[in-house]
TrEMBL record:
Function of the protein: Catalyzes the condensation of 2 ATP molecules into cyclic di-AMP (c-di-AMP), a second messenger used to regulate differing processes in different bacteria.
PANTHER family per UniProt: DIADENYLATE CYCLASE
Keyword Amino-acid biosynthesis recorded: no
InterPro entries, sorted: C-di-AMP_synthase, CdaA, CdaA_N, DisA, DNA_integrity_DisA_N_sf, DNA_integrity_scan_DisA_N
Record keywords, A-Z: ATP-binding, Cell membrane, Membrane, Nucleotide-binding, Nucleotidyltransferase, Transferase, Transmembrane, Transmembrane helix
Enzyme Commission (EC) number: 2.7.7.85
Gene: dacA
Gene Ontology MF, one: ATP binding
Pfam families (alphabetical): CdaA_N (PF19293), DAC (PF02457)
TM ranges: 30-48, 54-72
Domain DAC: 73-241
Catalytic class of the enzyme: transferase
GO biological process terms, semicolon-separated: cAMP biosynthetic process
Name assigned to this protein: Diadenylate cyclase
Length: 270
C-alpha cells in the first residue's frame, strides 16, 4: 500500500463520515437506514446463494439509483447550496454543533405545555404545538417566524390568542425553546382519517407522518385536546394522558415511568 492509497482511503472515509453526519437529524436519515437494511438483505442473499433475491437486486439497481436521486432531491439540493457557501470548510470541522446537540425536554417545560393546553382548552382557543425529537424540522421552521423563547404557558397562550399576528399556524418546540411560530405543515393525505377533522388536525397528522415529532392540538370548536405521533391521532385526551405521553417520550426522569400509557390507545382515527 502506497502513501497515495492511504490518502485516498482517508479522503473517502472523511467524506462518508461527513455525509452520515449531515444526513443524521433529517428526514433522509430514516430513508438511509432503510437503504442499509436492503444492502444487509442483499449481503445475506449473497452469502446463502439466494439466486432469486440476487436477481431482483441486480435488475433493480439502476432504477434504484434514479429513485434515490428523486427521493433525496431536497437534501441533495441543500448539500450543493452548502458547497457554494464561503464558510463550507469551517462547517466541515464544526458542522454547527449547536444544531446537532440533542436537548431533552425537561419535566418543568412539559408541565408548562400541559398547563397551556389546559388553559386554551377551557376557552376553546385553537392550538397546534409541534414537539421536535431526533428529526430536525428546519425546513418547516423556515416557513414561520423565529421566536427563540423559553417554553412558558403564558407565551404559548399569547401566541395562539385569537386575532393576534402569530395565532395562525403551528409552533415548533426544540428542546426547551419555542423556535418558531406561524409555521406551515404538510397536510396528511390519509383517506381513512375522519371527515370531521379540520386542517389543524390533518396538519398534525401530516407532520407526524414525515418525522418522529409529537404534535399536540387543541380544537377551536370543541376545546378537546389531541395527540398525533407516527401518523396516528388520539382525540379527546385528558391532561393526565397528555402529561404522561410527553413524560414517557421526552423526560428523562424516574417519575416518567409511572406515566406509561397503554400502547393500545394509539390508533388511527377512522
Amino acid at each position: 500500500m502506497k502513501i497515495k492509497d492511504i490518502i485516498e482511503i482517508a479522503v473517502i472515509a472523511f467524506g462518508i463520515y461527513q455525509i452520515l453526519k449531515w444526513v443524521r437529524g433529517t428526514r433522509a436519515w430514516m430513508l438511509f437506514k432503510g437503504i442499509i437494511v436492503l444492502f444487509a438483505v442483499s449481503a445475506i442473499a449473497m452469502v446463502f446463494e439466494m439466486n432469486t433475491i440476487m436477481w431482483i437486486f441486480a435488475n433493480t439497481i439502476n432504477v434504484g439509483i434514479i429513485a434515490l436521486l428523486i427521493v433525496f432531491q431536497p437534501e441533495l439540493r441543500k448539500a450543493l447550496e452548502q458547497l457554494g457557501q464561503k464558510n463550507f470548510l469551517s462547517t466541515l470541522v464544526a458542522f454547527d454543533e449547536q444544531k446537532d446537540k440533542k436537548e431533552k425536554l425537561a419535566q418543568e417545560y412539559i408541565e408548562e405545555i400541559v398547563q397551556a393546553c389546559a388553559l386554551m382548552s377551557k376557552v376553546k382557543t385553537g392550538a397546534l404545538i409541534v414537539l421536535e425529537k431526533d428529526v430536525k424540522l428546519y425546513e418547516f421552521e423556515k416557513t414561520g417566524l423565529p421566536v427563540d423563547a423559553i417554553v412558558t404557558r403564558q407565551i404559548l397562550c399569547n401566541i395562539f390568542e385569537h386575532n393576534t399576528p402569530l395565532h395562525d399556524g403551528a409552533v415548533i418546540i426544540r428542546g426547551n425553546r419555542i423556535v418558531a411560530a406561524t409555521c406551515y405543515l404538510p397536510l396528511s393525505e390519509n383517506m381513512t382519517l375522519s371527515k370531521e377533522l379540520g386542517t389543524r388536525h390533518r396538519a398534525a397528522v401530516g407532520i407526524s407522518e414525515v418525522s418522529d415529532c409529537v404534535v399536540v392540538t387543541v380544537s377551536e370548536e370543541s376545546g378537546k385536546m389531541s395527540v398525533a405521533m407516527g401518523g396516528n391521532l388520539v382525540r379527546g385526551v385528558d391532561l393526565e394522558y397528555l402529561k404522561g405521553k410527553l413524560l414517557e417520550i421526552y423526560a428523562d426522569t424516574p417519575d416518567a415511568t409511572k406515566f406509561k400509557i397503554w400502547k393500545g390507545r394509539m390508533k388511527n382515527v377512522r
